[in-house]
Amino acid sequence: MTEILPPLLPLLVGIPLLMGALGAALRKSKRARHIISLGTLSAMFVFSLLLVIATHDGTVLAHKVGFWDFTPQVAIPFVVDALNSLVLMIITILGITSVMFAMATHEARSRFYHPFVLILMAGVAGALMTGDIFNLFVFIEVMLLPSYGLLAMMGAKLGAHGARIYVSVNLLASTLLLFGIGIVYGTAGTVNLAELHGAAAEDPAVAVGGAVVLTAIGIKAAVVPVHGWLTRTYPMTSPAVTALFSGIHTKVSIYAIYRIYSVLFDGDERFLWIALVVTSLTMLIGVLGAIGEKTTRSILVFHMISQIGYILIGVGLFTGLGLTAGIFYLLHHMIVKASLFMSTGAIEETYGTGEIDKLGGMLKREPLIAITFMIAALSLAGLPPFSGFVAKFTIIQATLEQAHYWVAAVAVIVSVFTLLSMLKIWVGVFMGKPPADLEDNALEYQEKMHGKRYLRVQAQAENPTLTIGPPTAAMSAVLSGQRAVKVPVKLIIPGAILAAITVFFGFGAELLMLLSETAAENLLNPEGYVEAVMDA
Amino acid sequence: MSIAIAVGLLTAAAVYLFMQRGMVRIVLGFVMASHAANLLLFAAGNTAYRGVPYIGTSDYGEGGDPLPQAFVLTAIVIAFSITMFMITLAITTTHDDDTENDEESPAKVLTSADTDDAVSSSVDTSSSGAVAAGTGGADASPMSPVHDFEAQDDDSAEAPNADEGTGHHQGKEDPQ
């Protein structure tokens, strides 16, 4: 299998791109776009599952795109090992569930929704697999361009400010990344990661370039003190898009930080303290920021920042256990966070608001959502028996092993605050009595959303609105007062699937932990990675 | 050396423009910043060698490094497309290109006209007024933020026709 798979790697980028174009060309048929999108994403999932199986023993698969056989240095390498195949697999799961969610909210009726998601996925696959830092820049841009479209299109009802900030910050980070790549090329003479192995550890000039690259990627990963854009932009679009982005953009950047520090810096111990200080600040400031927030989504976005701190502890320690724990945490976090965004997003899409003060009593009204939210929230806070417990426990164990007691202390304190924030949402949204005007507001919102015939953003209007298609039979019944407002089951399923996965990874943590260990082993000893690229 | 100076100047100009709140200025800042990055990439390939980089067309010692040129070409295409998208974002959905949406945010409260501190506020409002006038002057409706800025501008500069904007102006000052 290790001989058949490498030449197929470029298909992971090419097929979604082609399918995205095909989807955009099919003007009329919604159904065809749905099928193309879900089909392509499922195929990507199956392929990444094969890659996980092929790399579970530490094998590194490498391929030079186009069978270019001049020299390994000039070819464009695609490299897959346990780490990026695992991340890709989880991202395809998130892609499938978020597309299901968007179909339930009717956003996917838009002609460009599915094409954008597929092109985004092509960029993600490329950014994860690429073996040189200039192509990393290119694929991050491929990934970002459809994201700009998605964010602006679905957030139009909230104004263009979110999109303006999002595009500006990301372009700034990309320009900075380009500066960094220029410095690395000028000092080391190559941008191929395998050739650059250990260059930053030996040569301070390359290390400066590497630091600029890491800073740029750090902005994209929303690490404190460059996290502000995330909390200003993610709540400014639709819940479906927030759920999709939460698992993809910052996480691909985190993967890049892991990979670059492992290969370019060869895990240099001199700079690790910087990472530990930054991660501790990220954990603390993220969780404190959530205290003042009033809507479910903005609270969750602040927690995302705090969790990014936990994930990056792995790089800060750069020991076998630390990296294993960090990778496990990354995979767990992607699933849990998206699940939380989807369960609170389902309420937001049905009742028209995510403000905690305007909601209440959902435990009685929507018991299924309540259970889904509860599982994911407890997992996020790190309570057994969910995957979050295993993740947090191993992270803290790894910091104690290296005698970084203050990092461990911060990690424990922050998880207490995380639990408090989750309880705030729980008490405000699910417990207590529903406000008197809950139902009226929900009806008003639904009427507004289903008023127009097709999904259309009226961007030039005085008050831009996003209206979605004709009401379904069930929705008509609600609008005419024959049925009570209730979250449709279709909206609950995607979040529930992800919640089920976190339970599965809680009880079956052994499996994912073994895979994370292999991935950590590959990061600790990048020689295998280097050899695979040079011999490909 | 000249490339280093050019990169420095372009970056300084870009950073200055990023500090503005109007979207069009930020976009111009990005044009500068991407030029700076492209020059730096060129410099990384050593600009002293300028021969044609194809094998067999010039001596190995004289041929330019083709890789940075490929990088720059790619980067230009990407930067151009995103710049176009950003300009689109600057004119959609509202009549101004402000990056601040919250009426009570410090950025807006501080730049609105304040009678106690007329000197500093006249500087602030004139800059934001210029941003608004540069982008949405043509289609500024009486209710649009563009008009507000102009009214405040007149007021703080103590122009003789300040009365015209007063009624409208006071209504908007309530958040303070």
TrEMBL record, chain A:
Pfam families: Proton_antipo_M (PF00361). Keywords: Cell membrane, Membrane, Transmembrane, Transmembrane helix. Residues 132-418 form the NADH:quinone oxidoreductase/Mrp antiporter transmembrane domain. The keyword Zinc does not apply. The chain crosses the membrane at residues 6-26, 35-54, 74-100, 112-130, 136-153, 165-185, 205-226, 238-258, 270-292, 299-321, 368-391, 403-423, 491-515. GO terms for biological process: ATP synthesis coupled electron transport. InterPro entries: CPA3_Na-H_Antiporter_D, NADH_UbQ_OxRdtase, ND/Mrp_TM. One of its GO terms (cellular component) is plasma membrane. It is found in: Cell membrane; Membrane. Belongs to the CPA3 antiporters (TC 2.A.63) subunit D family. PANTHER family: NA(+)_H(+) ANTIPORTER SUBUNIT D1, NADH DEHYDROGENASE. This is Monovalent cation/H+ antiporter subunit D family protein. It comes from Nesterenkonia salmonea. The lineage of its organism: Bacteria, Bacillati, Actinomycetota, Actinomycetes, Micrococcales.
TrEMBL record, chain B:
The chain crosses the membrane at residues 24-49, 70-91. Residues 165-176 have a biased composition (Basic and acidic residues). It is found in: Cell membrane. Pfam families: Oxidored_q2. Keywords: Cell membrane, Membrane, Transmembrane, Transmembrane helix. It is a multi-pass membrane protein. InterPro entries: CPA3_antiporter_subunitC, NUOK/Mnh_C1-like. It comes from the Bacteria. GO terms for cellular component: plasma membrane. Residues 118-141 have a biased composition (Low complexity). Residues 96-176 are annotated as: Disordered. Belongs to the CPA3 antiporters (TC 2.A.63) subunit C family. This is Cation:proton antiporter. It comes from Nesterenkonia salmonea.
